[in-house]
Amino acid sequence: MKLIQTPFDLDLTLCCGQIFKWEKRGGWWYGIINDNPIKIRQLSKDLEFENASSDLIKNYFSLNDNLQEIKRKVVRDEYIKTVLKKLWGLRIIKQDPWECLISYICATYKNIAAIKSMLFNLSKKFGEKKSLDDFIMYSFPNPKKLQSAKESDLLKCGLGYRSKYVLKTARKILEPNSFFDELYQLPYSQAKKRLIQLPGVGPKVADCILLFSLEKTEAFPVDVWIKRVIINHYSDHFSKSFISKISQSRSISCLEYTKINEFGRSYFGEHAGYAQEYLFYFERMNLK
DNA sequence: TTCCAGGTTCCAA
DNA sequence: TTGGAACATGGA
Question: I want to staple A207 with a disulfide (CB 3.0 to 4.6 A). Which of A56, A98, A138, A219 is the partner?
């Protein structure tokens, strides 16, 4: 099937680090949406895909989000203007909340390559085998599978100390559908409070789940890369002692997180999460 | 081999 | 309430 949408950049959207399980083979991206294997590619402005409806693709890649309008609201200075121009077409994916929750618990204190291999191992061990063309994929493990998993098996997947967090969180969410439905209905701050009650979920992981799976585009996750963005491009908005302090320590404290998070949300506004993702990926690209 | 990673938790002060 | 160490593991 084909779809024409502008502006959209499939490669940027799948490469930027918001999602971990898509793979590119022979010009096609392969991934799983709602337990169905999908393949998709972009030729100029045409989006070509198999095994999915147009509505599914539109929803998953947020193609109905008005990117021009988001840009208009988010562009507060020359730097963000440049970054948006460089990465134009990157969109926030609407991930499955369960997969997003477990993925981002696993994503703490790991580089993206390691996260990908960890989640692949987890899916291979506890998910279902799927194939499209000759490409084999594994669906993300459903809640019941992980609830009954053994910690030793999670350790074998490379989760390390995150294993017990994944198990505890999985066992705490008895009714995943109603749990996430409720979060979806709640305003940002209340939903975040609920998420932080889960083992292995702190402010950063909660913000990622809210942004990447619950359509709270005002969420502004702060990680080591966003800390660098602040130090390198937005230090004028903070005191010198604050910038000096966060420059020296590797991880940031809870108070420092809140300060940067609140800056991001008030400065970039209701779609701060979009600004965050553009800034995040551009900072990573530049270092490489 | 060493460094560091899309941080969170625990505990002492 | 807050600051800082501990945490398992693997990619670069």
Answer: A219
